[in-house]
Amino acid sequence: MRADFTAALLTWRGILRKQGLISYGLVTVPAKDGGPAVWQIMAAVVDVPTVQADLDLGEVAVRLLGEDLEGRVAYTESYPTQMGFGLGIISQPVMSPEGDLTLFPTEEAQSGADASVGRIGLAVSLSCPPGGDHGLLVVGNCLDPEQVVPLAGVVAVIGGNSTFVDDAPDADETESET
Asked: Which of 149, 119, 158 is CA-nearest to residue 25?
């Protein structure tokens, strides 16, 4: 059974890597007061708008999302990261009995969710350099929606402490080697 589970996870990881994911992990923590934690966390480099002005893109995104998500069960926050700015989102998506997923449900939809079909926890972090161009998107989900806040903490730490490293040699280094 363990070998089958490991093979399935490695196959899933391979599929995700082919789609551009740079990191994928399954976090499991032993049972405690709130039950065992089983979190799935993924990270990918994504394109973001290039910004030339002195503009806090994270704050702009949080304000726009805040307006879009008004009346929804979701939390957004802008925060500084090692790269520059960061944007975080926490939600407890609801899945209908028909299999439809609502990422940012209203309070009515969330309270009316059938516990057997249910809710999950979702945490997202986007960190980018001040000028934009590329960013690191970290997405975590958990089957227990009550664990979304600690999951969001891990997602924010991953996104907030990550940086991009350019391994390409500088033009000066290339010329001196030839």
From this structure: 158
Question: What residues contact 151, with CB distance under 8 A and at least 6 apart?
Answer: 37, 39, 41, 121, 123, 140, 141, 142
Model pLDDT, residue 62 = 67
Mean pLDDT, residues 25-30 taken together? 73
Instruction: Tell me the pLDDT of the chain averaged across its residues.
Output: 79
pTM: 0.76
Identify the architecture of domain 22-164 in CATH: 2-Layer Sandwich (3.30)
Q: What is the chain's alpha carbon radius of gyration, rounded to the nearest angstrom?
A: 19
**Which residues, listed in sequence order, are joined to residue 91 by a DSSP beta bridge?**
74, 122
- From CA 159, how far away is CA 177, in angstroms rounded? 36
Q: Which amino acid does the sequence have at 66?
A: G
pLDDT at 33 over 60: yes
Which uninterrupted H or E stretch holds 80?
strand 74-80
Q: Which residues contact 158 (CB under 8 A, 6 or more apart)?
A: 41, 43, 125, 138
Nearest of 39, 16, 13 to residue 158 by alpha carbon: 39
Buried b (16+ CB within 10 A) or exposed e, 72-88: bbbbbebbebebbbbbb
| DSSP for 8-22, written as a single string | HHHHHHHHHHHTTEE
